[in-house]
From TrEMBL:
Keywords: Repeat
Domain DC1: 10-52, 62-107
Domain of life, per lineage: Eukaryota
Signal peptide positions (record): none
Pfam annotation, one family: C1_2
InterPro entries on file: C1-like_sf, DC1
Name of the protein this chain belongs to: DC1 domain-containing protein
Amino acid sequence: MSREIHHIAHRKHPLVLRDTGSSFRCDGCGCLGVGSHYRCDLCDFDMHEFCATCPPASTFAFHGQHPLTFDRAGFLDGSVTCSMCEEPIKGMNYSCWGCDVCVHPICSQLPPTAVSPMHMAHTFVLAVGAPVECTLCRTSCHGRYQCLPCNINLHPKCLFGTVPTPVTVPTPVYIPNDVDALDKIVRRVTLLNLI
Ligand SMILES: [Zn+2]
Ligand SMILES: [Zn+2]
Ligand SMILES: [Zn+2]
Ligand SMILES: [Zn+2]
Ligand SMILES: [Zn+2]
Ligand SMILES: [Zn+2]
């Protein structure tokens, strides 16, 4: 990965890959980020490494039927919510409008599978689709980690314990530190006779 790039979103100066050691707000997608990212010091312009370099179209396991198109111009103004984290999208995004799927670029990078101590029997698979009830928080979810055999659905934030948009992409194996949440779902899963 080159340390300096020219980006259409910031034509005045090159962007340099840097780690400022503090969090930043990406001028591409509007989401928070931490760690190594592209930056123009002169203009205080920041961009996730992924937002700056991701391909114009890409197929993701969570929507395997069609490739999603990357909106590099970032025309969305917050009127559309992310299919994955359900926060408004203000800027760059990946979408399949035919299927009404639109996600923050960083939300597209959620691990396709994850395990959770809330349900160790099976691996959860990331999917988007018609809303179903989240087994943990009981509100509806479009984007979710699902265990199909057991009919368990969890918002990504309910599985990983990060809200509302993941600042960093969580590692595939993550133990939530929210003991209450863990306890809640263990009780609910037991109630449903799922384990
Ligand atoms: Zn970004
Ligand atoms: Zn600049
Ligand atoms: Zn999102
Ligand atoms: Zn589609
Ligand atoms: Zn939930
Ligand atoms: Zn299961």
